[in-house]
Structure formats: structure tokens, C-alpha cells
Design brief:
The complex is a heterodimer of chains A (206) and B (646). By secondary structure, chain A is α+β, with helices and mostly antiparallel strands. Chain A contains five helices and ten strands. Chain B folds into two domains: 227 residues, Rossmann fold (3-Layer(aba) Sandwich), CATH 3.40.50.280; 336 residues, tm_1862 like domain (pyruvate-formate lyase- activating enzyme, Alpha-Beta Horseshoe), CATH 3.80.30. Classes of the chains: A alpha+beta (206), B alpha/beta (646). The interface between A and B is medium-sized, with 29 and 27 residues.
């Protein structure tokens, strides 16, 4: 058999509306089933408990939608990306839909760590011009309090456009700041209607 | 009349804050929408999504109703406690999954009664749906509320809450009943007219049309119910789906987002079990035995895997390894699924009819734990319960399994079985220790430390429609004494005994054996806050106890009283096919320690099912008795569908 690492198919998918409420694990399970339904020639790990060779991008918090989620699938033979895309789309539900497929290098970084910069779009229920971003936020992780310096994570500040705003957060190897947690701690006059991840980038220049 | 419209906008704000939002969001792969339908039915599982979504009745019945033109079946589940409270606080009703429509907007509602601890959840669901709890308090345009499922075989504790109850298999009888409701509703019939029409349909019971007699009157009359009108049946025989064996084993199913129980492709390979264990309700209820063919099963599994994307398939039934073609089925499936990471599992393996070679095929390379169910510690008591398992069968299975690489084994036992003595309890300890010795003898010395043998002990709950239906449950103190006796009888430190204090056992026994008077107890317990009784952390014993005190309901008496076999039990007007006379004879044979053969392997024991229902066992091929009679074994983590009390 040809080395399956040679056929590393990256898929970009959206997660929207009520399916934004799925957890990372639920999305992962769902995508494995999408791949099986699509009938793609996925590679299976050898050993004690064989499983599909599939890897997922950085976790999206529950409640946050996205237009740019990723998963990488190792396949045992080449399938034209357009064909793979059509098969995946036919096996997906509309609100968790694959949008694009392409091959990546066997040596490419894993989708979960390759793109530390995430840009989010917030929709408010009324126009907003400015918000009060705190310097630090105290979160509880594993029953321990942790103080996060917002400046270390907020790679690009809020930009407003009517009832929408965008901002970029950087995930650090040591931890990250959730976009919904950041919004909760900002003094905002309007209510948050939705939060969507609209871009994942390797660095801020992209 | 409540409008049929989506309340998702209001509900979604609560869902976002709920524990596990994916329980409520719909849009799963395989969901069916029929907005054009003029008759809407909501099929409810009275517990949360992750427990109910895998329920076989829900899947089968939703499909059966959706197959009818102009009819739609949507799913409904009881929200988890946090969401029940949030909905109430927000003034929002229980909703269906597909349309997110209020329960009260449906034409009819069906609630499956899966086990004895779901009764308060039935009331919670009705109340949260904004419906009056009692059938006779519902308005003319309120939905018709029907029930079915295992607990319908003693429907009386639920009688006031349902307009009608479907006894037996619902593939055909549920859509038939709904057609009656649809036709009469269109014609402007009253609820009472609908009850009457349903009562005259085979397999349907409309309890409000019958007076409940008191005990003395019932014993004199030979029945607890008296029709309030002429022309009503006085005996309701279960419905049997005669097309089961030839129907496709692929039943379109919904693939949940959230991890549900039994979250895999479930393919029902056969229905019914004629082993005849005398404590087992399922064994009595689902007769006769009907096998689907190997071709049907293999094709259905492959189609189901392709359509759902599951990586595991379970071949479900009460006793899958009894299927006459099971070896062929497994071999064909293993070949077809090789290299795809798909696991084929079976929920209960009788190693006798099968052998460990095949068990290893089933579990693949992964050897978790095995579970055997000898049920009783001595041959005498195993004969009493007609388990037909010998010590040699068990030891043979242990030798084979531990030689083949298994290292963990759990043994299931019941205590409090009729005629049980202290010797039987000590017998459990002896049997488990001997099992350990056998395991030790075949495992290489350096691996012996990893051997784990444990015994799980459960309290016997007498079930309606079984030969032990007349027997009482032992009191909790006595149960505890016997468990302690067992604990003290085990001398090996390597053997562990698991016993969970069954606080809920009295509720199970009362629900299982009680009559219509139990309904008031259920309602009172629910009004005092009882719900989710099957969840250890939610069970509110005080609510049940104080409800019983208030009603002067003798809970202990209801659970523990034994009766002679000529005593008319409160479900005597409901027929599971097997005659009361046969059940009584089986009870007598139990007393004598006489076993009764399985009619799919040996002679007919004249239980009455085939004659009364005009049916017969349908086997794909002749079953070979061979080395039959051994313990059930279940491969741990591989599946446990169908192991209710057997």
C-alpha cells in the first residue's frame, strides 16, 4: 500500500446556527461518521484498537459558530478534492457542512496547532461603538483560579461596524482566552446575538 | 387548541445555558420532516435524550408511523432536571424534537413505558406538556395520550393517566390505533367515543371504560376489571408483529450528535427467547421466537453502516448467540468489515451455544471483560429458576475465556429468588471462588495479578406475567443480611462482591405487581417531587415514603406479599400469550426443582403462545442443541442491550 501520509486531505467546514452548540467531541464524532458515510478511503490505525486516522483543528467553545473549522483525514489513495468534497457534502447536515477540500504536505503542522490566531465576529442586538475591555480576567480552571492578562491574548483589538465587531485572539501553548469569556467581562450596552470564528491564521500578517 | 408552531426561538435561549445543549437541538442525520402531514403524533421516551434516542421502540414506532401517508411521528424526550426547571420557570412547555412544537399541539402522544422506575417521569412529561394528568380530565381537543412497552403488561399503575394502552408489539397496532384516532377526530367524535373504538381494536386497552374492583370482588369474579359498557373485551391479548422475521433488519435510524447510550448501529437479529428463565419478563413477553435470515441481517448491517457512518454494530436480541445462523453471520460480517475499523458486537453471548473462538471474533482483538449470568449459586436454585446452567458450563467458559486472553470476568447473581436458602447464598461465594481458581490455573504465572473476578448481586424483583409473579420480594433487612452472609463467605481477597443498596427496589416491586390503586401513589410521589427515580442521584425515597404514609398505602405489603397461584393478579386481564395456567405450572415445577426445555431446541412445553396467537417459532434454520445450557456471557463494553433483568 502507498504510504497513506501522502494523501492528507484537509477539509474546511462551517458550524452554524444551533449546531454551534455542539461540543468539540460531538463535532469530532459527527465528522468521523460523515467521512464513513461519504465512503472515502480513510486510513485506519493499526494495533489494539483500530480507528480512523483523522485529526481536528483547535477546539471551538460551545455556543460559538464558525466559517473556517478544519479537519485532516489520512487516506489510502488519491481522490480528487472536488470528488471528496461532493461526497462529504452529500453526507453532511446543512449546519455542519464541509466547504472546501485540498491536500496538504505530509510534513504540514497539525491543524490543531498550525493556526494560533483566531478572528471572531460578534453580532450584537444593537449598534455598539466602544466597549470596556478589562486588563485581566480571572477564570476558574480545574477548580483553580487563573488570572489571564487580556493584552497577552488579544492580538487585534475590537473593530466596530454597526451592530458587528471583530477581534483576534491568540492561543498560547500555556492556555487561551475564550472569546465568550472575554465578551462576558467587557462592559457592553448591547446583548450578544452570536459569535462566529471567521478566520484561523498562522500569524497576524496573513 | 394549542397552535402547532415552533417555539425554538424561546427555547434556544434556555438550551444555550442547559447542560448538554445537544440533547435539544435536533437536525441530526436521519431526522424525518413531514410538514405536509395532517395528523401529528409525538413519540415520547420518558427520560433524557441520551437514554431515549437509542431506544428500539422509539425508532421502530416513529418509522412505522412515518410510513403512513399524511401522518408524521416526531420524537420527544423528557428534558434533564435542569432544563425541566428552566422550562417551567420560563413558562414554556415540553416540545418535540423535530418541529420544536409544544406537546399539547399534537393530535396524539405516545409514551413508551420502558421500566418500573419511569412512572413519575411520565407525569413530569405530561405536566410539562401542559396536559391534565388524568385521561378523564382532558379536554376534547387535547391530544389522545397512549402508552405501550414492557410495563404495559401490567398497565394498571398507569391506568388513569392514559386514554389507551397498546399491549404487545406496536409495528402494526400503533399505526392502526392512530388511524382510528385520526378518522374519529375528523368526524368530530368525543374522547369517550375514541376510547371505545380503540378498546375494540385488537391489542388495545382503554382503562377508563372499566371499573376497578376491590380485592374480594376481583377474586370472586376472576378479574379485577368490569366493563362499564356492553361490547367491551374483558381480556386483552398482546399484539404480535407477524411480519418480523421477513421484514428488513435495516431500520432507518437517526445518528445523534451527543454520545447516547448504545450509540451504534443496532440491528435486531431475532425477537423472543424461549429459554424460559422463570424470573424473566422479557422471556415471557416476546414469545414466540422469530429469527431474521443471515442474508437479511448481513445486507442490513452493511446498508446500515453505509447510511449511518457508525463504526460499531450490535446484533441485538434477548439471546443473539441462539440464532441458528450466528456463526455464518459473524464470519460474513467480519470479512466484509475487515480493515474498516468497524466492530461487530453482540449484547449477550451464551458461550454454550457458541464457544470462545467465536467470542474472540466478536470482540476482535480487544478483550475487555466478560460478564456471565449464572444468577444463582447452587444447581438446585438454578433449576428452580430454570436457568439451565451448570457449574461445568461456567468453568468451561472461564477456562476457555482466560486461555484465550481475557483477564476480567463479572458474574451476575440475584438474591431473594423464591426458595432461596443460606446454602444458596454460600453457594455464590463458592462458585465465584472456584471460578477464580479456574482462571488462575490457565493464566501464565506472571499475569495472574491481572485476573479480576467479581460478582454483582442484585435483588430479585418479581415481575408480572412470569411464573414468579405470585412471589413476594424479601424485606430490605433480610436482603442486607443475605448480602453480608455472602460477603463473609468469600475468603479470597482477589474476589470482589458488588452490591448496590437497592433503595428503589420497593418502587420497582410495587410498580411491577400493583394494581390500579398504585396510580394514586405514583401521582402523590410525583407531587412531592419524585422524578428521575432511575437516577441514583435523583431518587427521592422520602417523596415515595411520605406519599405512601399519606395514602395509608402498604408499600411493604404490596412488594412482599406472596400469593398462591390461584390468586387472580391485577394484570390477569392482560395476555402475554403464555397462559396463566402454564405460568402456574411453571411455578409448581420451580417448587419441585424441575426444569423445562427451550422449545426452539427441544419439545414444546405448551406455554400457549403459538396456539393463542396463531403463530409459531420461526427459525432461519434448525437450532442445534449441541453443548447448550451454559451461562450468559456478555463481552464488556461491547454492548448490553436487552439485559433488563436476565
Amino acid at each position: 500500500m502507498t504510504d497513506p501520509r501522502l494523501f492528507r486531505l484537509r477539509s474546511v467546514f462551517i458550524e452554524r446556527d444551533r449546531l454551534a452548540m455542539l461540543s468539540h467531541l460531538e463535532v469530532a464524532h459527527t465528522l468521523e461518521r460523515v467521512v464513513r458515510r461519504a465512503g472515502l478511503p480513510f486510513a485506519v490505525s493499526q494495533g489494539f484498537s483500530p480507528h480512523m486516522k483523522i485529526a481536528f483543528g483547535a477546539a471551538l467553545p460551545v455556543g460559538i459558530g464558525s466559517t473556517c473549522e478544519l479537519f485532516d483525514l489520512q487516506m489510502t489513495r488519491y481522490i480528487a478534492p472536488t470528488k471528496a468534497l461532493a461526497a462529504l457534502q452529500a453526507a453532511s447536515v446543512p449546519d455542519l457542512m464541509v466547504q472546501e477540500c485540498f491536500y496538504i504536505e505530509p510534513s504540514a503542522k497539525a491543524a490543531s496547532v498550525a493556526f494560533p490566531f483566531s478572528t471572531y465576529e460578534v453580532r450584537f442586538d444593537a449598534p455598539v461603538v466602544a466597549i470596556d475591555v478589562p486588563e485581566s480576567i480571572t477564570v476558574v480552571r480545574k477548580r483553580k483560579e487563573k488570572v489571564l492578562e487580556v493584552g497577552q491574548f488579544l492580538a487585534r483589538p475590537f473593530e466596530f461596524d454597526g451592530d458587528r465587531a471583530t477581534f483576534t485572539l491568540e492561543a498560547k501553548p500555556t492556555g487561551s482566552l475564550r472569546p465568550d469569556v472575554l465578551l462576558e467581562h467587557c462592559g457592553i450596552d448591547a446583548g450578544v446575538v452570536s459569535v462566529t470564528r471567521i478566520a484561523q491564521a498562522e500569524n497576524m500578517q496573513e | 387548541m394549542v397552535q402547532f408552531e415552533s417555539i425554538w426561538l424561546q427555547v434556544s435561549a434556555l438550551v444555550a445555558k442547559a447542560e448538554r445543549p445537544s440533547r435539544y437541538i435536533n437536525h441530526e442525520w436521519g431526522s424525518v420532516y413531514k410538514p405536509e402531514a395532517d395528523f401529528r403524533f409525538c413519540m415520547i421516551y420518558p427520560d433524557t435524550y441520551e437514554l431515549g434516542q437509542a431506544n428500539q421502540a422509539l425508532r421502530i414506532l416513529v418509522n412505522a408511523v412515518n410510513a403512513r401517508e399524511g401522518m408524521v411521528a416526531e420524537r420527544g424526550f423528557l428534558p434533564a432536571p435542569d432544563m425541566c426547571d428552566a422550562l417551567r420557570e420560563a413558562g414554556l412547555p415540553l416540545f418535540s424534537i423535530e418541529s420544536c412544537a409544544p406537546l399539547a399541539a399534537f393530535d396524539a402522544i405516545g409514551i413508551t413505558l420502558p421500566h418500573e422506575l419511569a412512572a413519575t417521569n411520565v407525569l413530569e412529561a405530561l405536566d410539562l406538556g401542559g396536559l391534565p394528568l388524568h385521561a378523564d380530565e382532558r379536554a376534547e381537543d387535547d391530544p389522545i395520550v397512549v402508552a405501550g412497552g414492557p410495563c404495559a403488561f401490567n398497565p394498571e399503575p398507569y391506568a388513569p393517566f392514559f386514554d389507551a394502552i397498546n399491549i404487545g408489539e406496536g409495528e402494526e397496532s400503533l399505526p392502526e390505533g392512530l388511524e382510528v384516532i385520526r378518522r374519529l377526530r375528523k368526524a368530530g367524535a368525543s374522547r369517550r367515543e375514541i376510547w371505545r373504538a380503540l378498546a375494540k381494536l385488537d391489542g388495545w386497552y382503554a382503562p377508563s371504560l372499566y371499573r376497578w374492583r376491590d380485592r374480594d370482588e376481583a377474586q370472586r369474579a376472576g378479574s379485577w376489571i368490569e366493563p362499564l359498557e356492553d361490547g367491551l373485551p374483558t381480556y386483552i391479548e398482546k399484539r404480535l408483529y407477524k411480519g418480523f422475521a421477513t421484514s428488513s433488519a435495516w431500520e432507518p435510524c437517526i445518528v445523534p450528535f451527543t454520545e447516547a447510550v448504545h450509540d451504534r448501529l443496532n440491528v435486531e437479529v431475532l425477537r423472543g427467547c424461549a429459554r424460559g428463565c422463570r424470573f424473566c419478563q422479557a422471556g415471557m413477553m416476546y414469545r414466540p421466537v422469530r429469527e431474521r435470515s443471515a442474508d437479511n441481517i448481513v445486507d442490513s448491517v452493511l446498508k446500515g453502516l453505509a447510511e449511518t457512518g457508525y463504526d460499531e454494530v450490535s446484533l441485538t436480541s434477548l439471546s443473539t448467540t441462539d440464532h441458528s445462523q450466528i456463526a455464518e453471520i459473524l464470519q460474513r460480517l467480519n470479512e466484509a468489515c475487515a480493515g474498516t475499523g468497524v466492530r461487530v458486537s453482540i449484547p449477550s453471548q451464551r458461550l454454550d451455544s457458541f464457544g470462545v473462538d467465536m467470542a474472540s471474533l466478536v470482540a476482535g482483538q480487544k478483550k475487555g471483560g466478560l460478564t456471565f449470568a449464572p444468577e444463582a449459586g447452587t444447581q438446585r436454585l438454578r433449576d428452580v429458576i430454570n436457568k439451565n446452567v451448570t457449574e461445568d458450563d461456567l468453568f468451561g467458559a472461564i477456562d476457555a475465556a482466560f486461555s484465550a486472553g481475557w483477564r476480567r470476568c463479572k458474574l451476575y447473581f440475584m438474591i431473594g429468588l423464591p426458595t432461596e436458602t443460606d446454602d444458596d447464598i454460600k453457594g455464590i461465594a463458592r462458585l465465584v471462588q472456584q471460578a477464580y481458581d479456574h482462571a488462575r490455573a490457565v493464566v501464565p504465572k506472571e499475569q495472574r495479578g491481572s485476573i479480576q473476578i467479581s460478582a454483582s448481586v442484585a435483588l430479585f424483583v418479581p415481575k408480572a406475567q412470569t411464573p414468579f409473579q405470585w412471589d413476594g420480594q424479601i424485606p430490605p433487612d433480610e436482603a442486607l443480611r443475605r448480602v453480608n452472609l455472602l460477603r463473609h463467605s468469600v475468603k479470597y481477597r482477589a474476589v470482589s462482591i458488588n452490591w448496590h443498596d437497592p433503595k428503589t427496589s420497593f418502587v420497582e416491586a410495587v410498580m411491577s405487581r400493583g394494581g390500579r390503586e398504585v396510580a394514586a401513589l405514583v401521582e402523590s410521589a410525583w407531587r412531592r417531587g419524585a422524578r428521575f427515580d432511575a437516577w441514583t442521584e435523583c431518587f427521592d425515597e422520602d417523596a415515595w415514603r411520605s406519599a405512601a404514609d399519606d395514602l395509608a398505602f402498604d408499600v411493604e405489603g404490596a412488594a412482599q406479599t406472596g400469593y398462591p397461584t390461584d390468586y387472580v393478579m391485577p394484570w390477569d386481564h392482560i395476555g402475554c400469550g403464555a397462559t396463566t395456567r402454564w405460568l402456574a405450572r411453571e411455578r409448581q415445577r420451580a417448587e419441585e426443582g424441575a426444569t423445562t426445555p427451550d422449545c426452539t431446541f427441544e419439545n414444546c412445553s405448551a406455554c400457549g403462545v403459538c396456539m393463542r396467537l396463531g403463530a409459531d417459532n420461526e427459525l432461519a434454520k434448525e437450532r442445534v442443541a449441541g453443548a447448550r445450557a451454559s451461562g450468559d456471557a456478555r463481552a464488556d463494553g461491547v454492548g448490553r442491550a436487552g439485559d433488563s433483568n436476565d
